[in-house]
Amino acid sequence: MKLYNNPDKSSWLELLQRPTKSVEVIEATVDEIFKEVKEDGDKAIKKYTIKFDGVALETNLVSKAEIEQASKLVNEDLKEAIQLAKSNIEKFHSAQKTDKVFVETMAGVECWQEKRPIQKVGLYIPGGTAPLFSTVLMLVVPAQIAGCKEIVLCSPPNKEGKIANEILYAANLCGVTKIIKVGGIQAIAGLTFGTETIPQVYKIFGPGNQFVTVAKQLATKYGVAIDMPAGPSELLVMADESANAAYVASDLLSQAEHGSDSQVILVTTSQDFADSVSSEVKKQLAVLPREAMAEKAIANSKSIVVDSNATALELINAYGPEHFIVATTDNDFFVDKISNAGSVFIGNYTPESAGDYASGTNHTLPTNGFSKAYSGVNLDSFQKSMTFQKLSKEGILNLGNAIELMAEAEGLQAHKNAVTLRLSDLKK
Amino acid sequence: MKLYNNPDKSSWLELLQRPTKSVEVIEATVDEIFKEVKEDGDKAIKKYTIKFDGVALETNLVSKAEIEQASKLVNEDLKEAIQLAKSNIEKFHSAQKTDKVFVETMAGVECWQEKRPIQKVGLYIPGGTAPLFSTVLMLVVPAQIAGCKEIVLCSPPNKEGKIANEILYAANLCGVTKIIKVGGIQAIAGLTFGTETIPQVYKIFGPGNQFVTVAKQLATKYGVAIDMPAGPSELLVMADESANAAYVASDLLSQAEHGSDSQVILVTTSQDFADSVSSEVKKQLAVLPREAMAEKAIANSKSIVVDSNATALELINAYGPEHFIVATTDNDFFVDKISNAGSVFIGNYTPESAGDYASGTNHTLPTNGFSKAYSGVNLDSFQKSMTFQKLSKEGILNLGNAIELMAEAEGLQAHKNAVTLRLSDLKK
How far apart are CA B237 and CA B278, in angstroms? Predict the structure, then answer.
């Protein structure tokens, strides 16, 4: 870890900068595949599945038999763990339900706000060596609670044409409507336009590599909403001497193992503590199976010593971390005053992995400083808020004149007239 | 209005299609101005203000003296109307505040969700002949209630270097932090990168022409959030013979006067009613000052006769109108079952203009079918939801094993290790 001792505020911007990647090269590829999928539907999907996943599928719809077989192959302990996580995620996201907000703003002017489910959602689950079944729980559970009618899950097939057993088990457990073996750009294009087998959806969720990220961005141009823009995963730990250096090191490493572009930052008020964490990191790193990857990320990581909690807070808010662990003698100070963070982990016994898997909070969170403006995925991500209003005769009589004046001042005569007509009838 | 009598379902997609505009030509211009503003700051802003607004400003910051003078020039009746609208908007958006959502998902595992304000927001108010001060209310009021710290309003100067009195009055009344005379692409670029006088913000709100729309889209590429993608304004009225044809015509016309690309649709179960509305439209159109514009929009508008309320509902949900007026004998049916609409206006005495100005609901709403996935602007638009979790020793003991199993199955050994370390200490 690179150590920065009381860096001058003028250097913060550079110090906290995330690596930026140029995606312009990718954009042309994504554009081309989108056009082809729009034009040729499943034919194009098949072509790119052969090209990128190296497998020719007869059908890319996962059958009931496949799901049943997959479920049998997941071991019972893991099933119980998944069920426990699901139950916690359900409890936390169910609690996020809100009632209708009803206000009679003036006599006879009733206004209300209601949340209604997004009818069709597409969830993307990456493939690769490690099956990210935890993301299935994080996306399907709130989609179900929200009441989304069509929940389509796409995940790339492996060379044998299969999706990992754990993903199929979790998807089925949570009630996915349709599971489709399709990955990468072609999956996002399929969900955007719809094909013979892939339903067109209104919003696309889920993580992915930079191809998927650029494809999701392009999908928004075609009117499909996405959960949030994505970037490499991040963790910032704020800790002082009251924290446990070994725990902090283990948390930093758990972030670092996500990939060599992971962002890992320690902020502390104690130089000694920074040193202890640094040597703990070396010790633990040596025994990790993903050592090479984690080592690279740790090499890019930063240990920043600051003079006070106030300075630390300012720096953390300037960074806006995706994951923020706080283990200090004054956690309340940080919890109360943090403005920009995706999810906050408090105290010595709350590792980031708790939220990644099973505490109940969602692990789909804003990276890249997006926590300054974006929420992590939550129940509202699967709903939209709609407003309603109903004016009685009394209501329009109370409000009408103000509307007429404002419409006239904005030069919108027909807006005024819609009120005037009603008022003159009522005043007859 | 073009009449469609019981159109076959297979024709709906075409029938309900919005006109699509190619923005590719604009994109290059927007790109160029963004690059220049990023590079040259205020110098570039000044250059483009001269070019597009035809005025060279000494400073583009609106002074206190200017605000005071402008306020004196707004007439008292209009001020009262604006204050009434503000009060209703405040009541409705204040009621949208939510409490912390707290759940102990398992013994010792505390999770909660809180909403915190987006610290810096930029609001764009178009210039032009009609000063859209109502949009000032719709954006500043919820920003204030949310607790946004910096509320920057940008609006283009006229040839005399001024912003409309009503806009300055409303902005000051609602507590805008900073008002800047800058419009179009250069305003959005300034808010995206920050300049010597324009603060960089985290989220940009507000309507605008196609240049502003494309600029907002580009801003998202630089990590700035936006309220929603934009398109021409729309109204769909569902009415039967219980409705008042003159009122319905006045509502359709109030939408049509927004511009020749406005979308105006009547759905009805009665051919006779469709005919009455059509002749009422002709009658009212003749006396409108914006007749030419409204006439064009009305020429593109559609009157669709369907066989039942059920068919009507299906068609309306397929369209997903921005504004949806329902005036039938069974309004509850539509209110209960509408899935996709921005804002709903119920009954004979609730013209769209009520919500446009003063009922209390927000008038910044999803167009172009985006109501299928997007909310209109509401209090949440100015906040982000953050999650928190705190595990006690008991908590990690209860949850730890499930996390270990799941992390291991996902091949994330360091995630597991962060738990194992803590568990072994506790089990010592």
Answer: 13
Substitution target in B387, B394, B417, B426 with the highest count of A β-carbons within 10 Å is B387
Give the C-alpha distances (Å, rounded to integers) separating A75 from A72, A234, B406.
8, 31, 11
* Cα–Cα distance for residue pair B184/B182, rounded to 1 Å: 7
* A258 within domain boundaries: yes
Q: Of A310, A326, A347, which residue constitutes the final position of a domain?
A: A347
Query: Chain B interface, mutation test: which of A93, A193, A383, A385, most B Cβ atoms within 10 Å?
Result: A385
pLDDT in tens, B67-87: 999 999 999 999 999 999 999
Residues of B in contact with A346 (CB under 8 A): 388-390
Give B-chain residues touching A91 at CB under 8 angstroms. Answer: 103, 105
Domain that holds residue B139: 24-226
Average pLDDT of the segment spanning B34-48? 97
B385 chain-A contacts, CB cut-off 8 A: 375-376, 378, 380
A250 marked as binding residue: no
Domain count, chain B: 3
Shared domain for A182 and A117, answered yes or no, is: yes
Which DSSP letter does residue A111 get?
A: E
Nearest CA in chain B to A18: B223
Instruction: For A58-67, write each residue's pLDDT tens digit.
Output: 999 999 999 9
Instruction: Report ipTM (2 d.p.).
Output: 0.96
Task: Report the residue from B96, B256, B412 with minimal CB separation from A257.
Answer: B412
DSSP B382: G
- Single out the catalytic residue among A36, A93, A234, A323: A323
Assigned token pair, A36: 């082809």
Residues B188 and B237 both lie in one domain? no
A187 and A45 in one domain?
Answer: yes
In a domain, B4, yes or no: no
Of the candidates B323, B394, B404, B408, the residue annotated as catalytic is B323
Judgement on whether residues A121 and A182 belong to the same structural domain of the protein: yes
According to DSSP, residue A51 is labeled I
List of E strands, B91-248? 101-106, 109-117, 120-124, 150-155, 178-181, 203-205, 225-226, 234-239
Q: Which amino acid is at A329?
A: T
> Taking CB atoms and an 8 Å cut-off, how many pairs form between chains A and B?
408
My answer on whether A243 and A179 are in the same domain is: no
In this predicted model, what pLDDT tens digit does every residue of A20-59 receive, in sequence order? 667 778 899 999 999 999 999 999 999 999 999 999 999 9
A363 has binding-site annotation:
no
The residue among A89, A100, A252, A357 with the most chain B CBs within 10 A of its CB, best to mutate, is: A357
Cα distance between residue B180 and residue B49, in whole Å: 12
Task: Evaluate whether residue B368 is within a structural domain.
Answer: no
Tracing tokens 């209003």 back to the chain, one arrives at A389
Give tens-digit pLDDT for A150-188: 999 999 999 999 999 999 999 999 999 899 999 999 999
Confidence of residue A258 (pLDDT cuts 50, 70, 90): confident
Q: Would you state the structure tokens that stand for residue B387, as one six-digit string? A: 């999650």
Using CB atoms, pick whichever of A366, A376, A390 lies closest to residue B347.
Answer: A390
Residues B220 and B256 in one domain: no
Same domain, A46 and A155: yes
Task: Mark whether A291 is an active-site residue.
Answer: no
> Has B93 been annotated as catalytic?
no
Secondary structure, 3-state, B319-354: HCCCEEEEECCCHHHHHHHCCCCCEEEECCCCCHHH
Domain closes at, from B303, B333, B354: B354
